[in-house]
Amino acid sequence: MENMTSYIKEFIGREKSRDYYPELISGLAALNKEYHAFNVINDRLEAKNSFPFSTKANICVKGFETNAGSKMLEGYVPPFNATVVEKLLRHGNFSFLGVTNMDEFGFGTFGTHTEVPARNAFDKEYAAGGSSSGAAVATALLKYHVAVAESTGGSIAAPAALNGVVGFTPTYGAVSRYGLIDYANSLDKIGVMARSGEDAKAAFDIIKGRDDYDTTCAIGKINNNRKKKLFVVKELIEKTDPKIRSAFERLLDKFSDDYEVKEISVGILGNSLAPYYIIAMAEASTNLAKYNGYKYGLQYGELNKRYNEFFTEARVNFGTEAKRRIILGTFIRSESVKEKYYTKALMIRRLIIKEMDKVLRDGYIISPTLPIPTPKISDVEKLTPMQNYAMDIFTIPPNLGGFPHITFPYEYLNGMPIGAQLVAEQANDYALLDFVSEWEKGFEYKYKHNLGSI
Amino acid sequence: MEDREFERLLKITRLKLTQAEKERIKADVDEIIKHFDSIDSIDTEEKPAYQPIDVPTRLRKDDVIPFSDVEALKKPSKLHNGYILGPKL
């Protein structure tokens, strides 16, 4: 395709002053005091002609604190690189810029479940989205940068939408998870955020592919099967805030010349929250069992205590949402109720995959990314956990089924960006990335900051 | 959820909660389980999908691959005569 926006190509092709990187780092450090996008900024960034990338704080980078937003992993400095980091560094055109903020272990839709939440890049009073909060804010602050992020149930899509950037979640198993601090292994996917579809594609092309260190990284060929139909799922769209719904109708009108837009009914998708959270919490509770105050990160130190006492006292450092999910996940896996909740949720997952697959063979599923306009941080704090989980209504179905999806900004409501989400069949990732590159030709991205402009 | 069951879960997950945390989390847990119970109404005979994609069994050759960075693994731990110290069993 012609006329695509590639900040990567633009950056690499331009002369930069010797002071470019030092100025970038000091500017970013100052801005970060306001937005808290980064947990760690790499001030050793080498002054060479390479494009900065960041990693979410649950993706291991050798020598940099990777704590998954949790006090339980405070001080954990990995002795190795995640495969995605290794691939970007070996490529030669990319330099590591820093570690980005996130909800503790990925548990959140708005970025508020961590000690110092990231702030929305358009207005600091508003939520950044989560759980890859810092990745999205960083992408919206920096002109030349891509973020490597991770999604379990919507953790790339939600923050990308709220900060007006492209958020791409690949097919499950297209990108290696080696070096990822797992939340829920059968749901976690590493993906990218960028300021254009083309840059997301360029980064995805480098990080995708089989890996001997991750047997679930089993997707081989990635396709580009363009579709001409856009499906809107009735059971999901009817739960949307009226302001978002009318903006979304305006978007559909724009697509109606080139695509057949059709509302369809897929009843089971209206019930996807419960099976998703059952599976996610069951897996999370097993993953979090290993954090005990002496093996990784936090060093509790009271080694004269007995094992259970030591373990229990050290685990006080989990945040409330983590504790809630550990308790629920452990309950769900109890012998007496395992069939009722966990096994049944896995059966429903297969049903959802089959139903979505039927639809996606024929076209894309399109929806708003979030059902509400960007909330203020103070309003998010008032939500109950169930109200919070309900915000994932659009992002959960593709995440539960391992389907690739992309979010892109399409309008600015009272100055805040809103995003739409497009879902494709498994391994049809390129079709989504090209769809967004096409869309961008008639859309003007807006940013409050363009740090690092040349 | 009965209080006894909640206490059992705290014990096996090795979580110690303050009274305020207990009240808050217990109420949340009850609300969330009520929502989880909604899956009872979904009738399906599908096989459980443990993964969203088919993951073929791939085994690497049973070769010894040297690992040289042992020092890095020891880093955060307290050591005594080359052993990693932990709490008493």
In short:
The complex is a heterodimer of chains A (454) and B (89). Chain A has 454 residues and is of the alpha/beta class. Chain A has a domain at 7-227 and 366-440: Alpha-Beta Complex (Amidase signature (AS) enzymes).
> What is the tally of beta strands of chain B?
2
Shape of chain B: flat
Content of β-strand of chain A:
5-15%
- Helical fraction of chain B equals 25-40%
Report the helical percentage of chain A: 25-40%
- CATH overall fold name of one domain in chain A: Amidase signature (AS) enzymes
| Strand runs of chain A, count | 11
The CATH homologous superfamily name of one domain in chain A equals Amidase signature (AS) domain
- At the first level of CATH, the class of one domain in chain A is Alpha Beta
**What letter string, H or E per element, gives the SSE order of chain B?**
HHHEE
Alpha carbon gyration radius of chain B: 23 Å
State the order of secondary-structure elements of chain A, H for helix, E for strand: HHEEHEHEHEEHEHHEHHHHEHHHEEH
Largest interface: A-B, 75 and 53 residues
What is the tally of helical segments of chain B?
Answer: 3
Distance between the termini of chain A: 25 Å
First CA to last CA of chain B: what distance? 32 Å
Q: Largest sheet of chain B, if any?
A: 2 strands, antiparallel
Class based on secondary structure composition and strand pairing of chain B: mainly alpha
